[in-house]
Amino acid sequence: MAYKSDIEIARAAQKKPIQEIGDKLGIPNEHLLPYGHDKAKVSQSYIDSVQGNKSGKLILVTAINPTPAGEGKTTTTVGLGDGLNAIGKKAMVCIREASLGPNFGMKGGAAGGGYAQVVPMEDMNLHFTGDFHAITSAHSLLSAMIDNHIYWGNELDIDIRRVVWRRVVDMNDRALRQITASLGGVSNGFPRETGFDITVASEVMAILCLAKNLKDLEERLGSMIVAYRRDRSPVFCRDIEAEGAMTVLLKDAMQPNLVQTLENNPAFVHGGPFANIAHGCNSVTATTTALKIADFVVTEAGFGADLGAEKFMNIKCRKAGLAPDCVVLVATVRAMKMNGGVAKADLGAENVDAVKSGCANLGRHIGNLKSFGVPVIVAINHFVNDTDAEVQAVKDYVSGQGSEAILSRHWELGSEGSAELATRVAEVAESGVSDFKPIYPDEMSLFEKIETIAKNIYHADGVVADSKIRDQLKQWEEAGYGNLPICMAKTQYSFTTDPSRRGAPTGHSVPVREVRLSAGAGFVVVVCGEIMTMPGLPRVPAATSIRLNDGGEIEGLF
User: Fold this and answer.
1) N or C: which terminus of the chain has fewer CB atoms within 10 Å of its end residue's CB?
2) How far is the CA of 243 from the CAs of 143, 175, 427, in angstroms?
3) H/E stretch holding 123
4) Cβ(62)–Cβ(308) under 8 Å?
5) Dihedral sign, Cα of residue 489, residue 492, residue 494, residue 495
6) Average pLDDT rounded to a whole number, residues 52-63
7) Angle at Cα 324 formed by Cα 60 and Cα 376, nearest 5°?
8) What is the pLDDT of residue 110?
9) With a threshold of 0.85, does the pTM exceed it?
C-alpha cells in the first residue's frame, strides 16, 4: 500500500481561518495578531486576562533515546492532542519552533508527521513569525554593544580576554565555532578570540522561554553575565545598558504563536531551545496560557527523557511552578530493534528477540520518570511493518516495569488511531495520582546536583571534573548562584557521553568539559563530552535538495 508523504498530506489540509481556531479557545479576534490567514500571535493583554482561570491538566510527551529509526515524539504529541479532542476533551498542543540550521542540515522538519501534523508546515520550519530572527537580532545587539563599549574607552574595565558573550546565527556553520574578531586596524577595535553558537543555544532563547512577561524578560536579560573584569568580578548586560533595547526587539517574539493541527485543533508553537545544549522546552508563557484556556495541554520536551524530560522537571517546572499530571513516553518497535543490535537496513524483518533485548533502554527511562513521582504511560508509535508479536513483546516488557503500553496509530489514522491512548491518558491525568517533585533540592551544592543527575538519570558511576571546574562552581555558589538548577549539555543518543553506546549502559562516568553560568536564564550549563553548541552540516546537507518547484511550492524540506 502506498502512503502519502508528510508534505503531500500537509498540502491537502483543509485549514480553517486562524480566527476560528481562536474561537475554540475563547480568544476574541481583537487579541489575535494574524500572520496571514493561518497563524497568529496572542496578545499579552489577553494572556494577562486569563491568569485567574483554573488550570487544566498538563501532559508531558517525551521519548527513549533517539535512533536513526525514528521515534515520532512530536507526531505523538500532535496525535494525542487530536485524540483528546476527538473523545470530547478541550485540549491543545504546545510544541517548540524549529531551528533553521538543522532543517538545512540533516534533521528535516519538526511539525509532526503523517496525519498527526501541525500546519502550516513549511512556514513553521522556515521563518514562521520571525521569533528566531528577533532573538538573533537581540543577541547580536548585545554583542555589538559590548565591543563598542570596549572601543570607546572601556569604562567598565572589561578584560577582553574574559568576554564570555559569544555571537549567534541560526544556521549550522562549524567554521564560526572559533573566530578572531576586530581585525583590520585601530578603527575596528581590539582583536580578540570569540565564536558563534547556534541561536537556539543562546541564553536569550532560554530566557524568552522561561520569562513570565516582558518585565520579567527585561530583568532576566539585564542579569546575564557578558564578561569579567581583571579582578574576576562579573559584568552584566545591565552594565552595558542593552536590556531595554533587547526587550524592544523581543516584544512581539514573547507572544505565543497560535496555529492548528490537521484536524483543526489549536496548537501553540513558541520558542525553541535545543535539549542537548539548552533546556529543550517550549515557552513558559505558551504552556501556562494554554493551561488557563484548555482542559488538557499536551507538551513535549526535546530528545530523550534523560535530557528533555529531566530538564522539563528540574528546570521548567521548578521555575514556572508547573507539575505534570501524566507523562507519555514514546517508543517504537523499530527503535527497540536498533537498541537490540539490528542494523537500520534490517528493521523491516520481524525480530522479537531483538525487541526484547532493546527494551532495556525503555525500561531505564520508565524508572527515571517514575523517580519524579509521575505516572508513566508508554505510547508505542506504530509503524506499518510492526508485527503483532513485536508489539506484544513491548507491552509485556512495560507491564513488567509496572507501567502500561498502548499502541497508537495516529500517523496513519489521525485521532481515530490515538483514541485509546487519549482515553487512558485522560483517565490517569484526572485521577490525581501524580506526586511530582524534582530529584534535587535548590539548596544542594552545584556539583552534587550534577552528580545526582549523572548517577540517578544516566546511571553513571560518577562525574569526572578537574579542580578548575570544581573551583568555578564553588565561586558561583559564593556569589549567590548555588541555588540554580543544572542544565546538562550532552549527546542525546546515549545515557553516556558516547553517542554510540545504546541501550542501558552501566560502568561509565560523565566527563565535564566546561561549565557556563546562565545567570539570566537561571541555570548552570554543564558541557559534557564532545557536545557542540554550534552544529555542523553533514557531508550532503538537506539544503542541496531544497528548492521551489514550477508551482512555487517548496520541495525537499521534509
Assistant:
1) N
2) 12, 29, 45
3) helix 121-124
4) yes
5) positive
6) 97
7) 65
8) 67
9) yes
Task: Please report which helix (H) or strand (E) contains residue 11, including its range.
Answer: helix 6-11
Size of the chain, expressed as the number of residues it contains: 558
**pLDDT: which is higher, 107 or 490:** 490
> Cα separation of 139 and 135, whole Å?
6
**Which residues carry out catalysis?**
73, 75, 96, 107, 275, 303, 383, 411
Q: What is the DSSP letter of 518?
A: E
> What distance in Å separates the CA atoms of residue 244 and residue 63, rounded to the nearest whole number?
39
Q: Which set of grid coordinates corresponds to residue 290? A: 494554554
Enter the C-alpha cell of residue 307. 535530557
* CB-based contacts of 134, cutoff 8 Å, min separation 6: 249, 250, 252, 253
Residues of 156-169 as b/e, b for ≥16 C-beta within 10 angstroms? bebbbeebebbbbb
CA torsion sign for 356, 363, 457, 209 is positive
Residues 6+ apart with CB under 8 A from 471: none
CA distance 378 to 361: 13
Q: What digits encode the pLDDT tens for the residues 298-339?
A: 999 988 999 999 999 999 999 999 999 999 999 999 999 998
Reported for 543-551, long-range contacts at CB under 8 A and 24+ positions apart, including other chains, are: 543/104, 543/105, 546/104
Q: Which three cell numbers stand for residue 261?
A: 493541527
